[in-house]
Write a structure and sequence with these properties.
343 residues, alpha/beta, Arc Repressor Mutant, subunit A, Rossmann fold, 2 domains, seven-stranded mixed β-sheet, two-stranded antiparallel sheet, 15 helices, 45% helix
């Protein structure tokens, strides 16, 4: 039986950032070289709507882009919109005698940079690496890709799942549903932490079969079941805690609203929802590491890293109350809320 844990190991935060920030530089190249964003902001600030209109780009990638540049210190937020900082005004505008735009332009023909421009303009994700030029959501319908992708996420989960099990209080809960749970690595650690807790993993085929194999390998098939299904179609009833671990960041706001509404409807009265993910701070100025990761999600999926304030509004809109935020290791965080017992 495979054992997973983190005791005694050095913190791999630097390695997570190296992987998760891989597309951030290409977004800067795309904005500076192909869209000339900073020169356009030199004369007057623009809000996000104005940026989208001026550059001909879509709102979701524009939000991710401006959050990144705020976190990098290239723009600042003003009442009238985003304005330049001394760093960008001196080095990323065409009128500056110190402009580095030609230096950046020497890398502007990179394939990913050109693909980034397309994502900004269409709002549609690019293909996932090694998926046969398919978008991530389509690639996951292939059994081999689903298995390899889930294994990749397990290597991350092996580091974060034990911590989540310590942070998420399930002492008063009996049945957990791990929604879009991948292999079920987080559910496995939670039922080990709480011997009274039973769990199920909701996953679409063929990922449900991957989850079944992992749970069996962990020796937990007697306590963790597998439910084949799509969270956008129906979430099964009868659970008093719903877990979304690294799930909501793959989807746009409309789909997040939809799945949170289904979660609220299915959750037992008095039950709780737990969202384990990476979150931008409430005022959307960082952390830089999360803003960089959000670019990867924007580029490869329909989603992004949502801010704490956005998640608070989304949960309240679905009917949840008592929202709490808990920061965790390596810029991960846990947001919990609950469904009222009545009314």
């Amino acid at each position: 039986m495979t054992e997973i844990g983190d005791a005694g190991f050095p913190d791999p935060e630097t390695l997570f950032r190296a992987r998760d920030s891989i597309y951030a530089s290409d977004l800067l190249l795309a904005a500076a070289v192909h869209l000339d964003l900073f020169s356009r902001l030199e004369n007057r600030p623009l809000d996000r709507h104005g940026i989208c209109s001026t550059l001909g780009i879509r709102d979701r990638p524009a939000d991710v882009m401006m959050t990144l540049f705020t976190a990098m210190g290239l723009v600042d937020r003003r009442d009238e919109g985003f304005g330049l900082t001394p760093l960008s005004k001196n080095f990323l505008t065409r009128s500056s005698q110190h402009s580095l735009l030609p230096y950046f332009a020497s890398l502007g023909a990179r394939f990913v940079c050109r693909e980034m421009v397309n994502v900004l303009r269409t709002g549609e994700p690019a293909s996932w690496a090694d998926s046969g030029e398919q978008e991530w959501v389509s690639a996951m319908e292939d059994a081999d890709f689903a298995e390899s992708f889930t294994a990749a996420m397990d290597s991350r989960g092996a580091w974060f799942a034990p911590l989540l099990a310590k942070c998420l209080d399930c002492s008063g809960r009996t049945r957990l549903l791990d929604i879009g749970g991948g292999s079920g690595i987080y559910a496995c650690h939670l039922v080990r932490e709480y011997p009274h807790l039973e769990a199920s993993i909701l996953e679409k085929p063929p990922a449900d079969a991957v989850a079944g194999g992992f749970v069996s390998e962990m020796g937990l098939s007697d306590r963790i079941g597998i439910v084949a299904g799509d969270m956008f179609d129906e979430i099964p009833h009868g659970y008093d805690v719903h877990l979304f671990s690294n799930v909501l960041h793959d989807w746009d706001r409309g789909n997040v609203e939809r799945v949170l509404a289904r979660s609220f409807q299915a959750l037992m009265p008095g039950g709780s929802i737990a969202i384990h993910d990476t979150h931008i701070n409430a005022c959307k100025t960082g952390p830089l590491e999360v803003a960089e990761y959000s670019v990867l999600l924007m580029y490869s999926t329909e989603g992004k890293c949502y801010s704490v304030s956005e998640m608070d509004a989304l949960l309240a809109g679905a009917g949840f109350v008592a929202v709490e935020y808990t920061p965790m290791r390596s810029h991960r965080s846990l947001i919990t809320a609950r469904k009222r017992r009545s009314g």
